[in-house]
Amino acid sequence: MYNQKTVKNLIRFFLLGIILISFGCAHHLSEEFKNASLKLNKPQLIDEYQRQNFSYATTRDGYGCGGVDISHSTAGCSPTYIFHSKKGNCAAYTTFAVYCLRQAGYEAYPIKVYSKWPSWFVPGSYPRDYHYMALYKDNNKWYVMDNGRGSGPRGIIGPFNSIEDLPYKILNIEGKKK
Known about the structure:
5 helices; 7 strands
């Protein structure tokens, strides 16, 4: 017969297997996603697609980015999340846009900027002082694509001659080499 320690280890092994399999499936690129992301090969097409097909929702609303903690990075927030759920937070919008932009050959990065929490803060929600957007370069000019807001300005913002010209307090540009 199995001792208690062996049973606990088998259960842990089984649960770890389930977690790893579900993680792999969550990040699997479906044919539908691949086809859509290849067709979205211009910033204007991505911008329009996001506005028509996605809506803003927070983790508190049951969406966000699939429960991924985005406080330090968008890593773990799959570009497929918002594509399949049709709802997401700023990180979900950003990872989708950056993925499509890179597929189309653009230099693109998730950018984290300072964003003051609005005065209409809802009790019970999660206040934060940052916001994610997609930063990309087109014809030697920099642009920001920002559709991941519950309210406020959306769309493509730019052009800017350099990243330093962006009208934001930049907290982080993920993956950009200095």
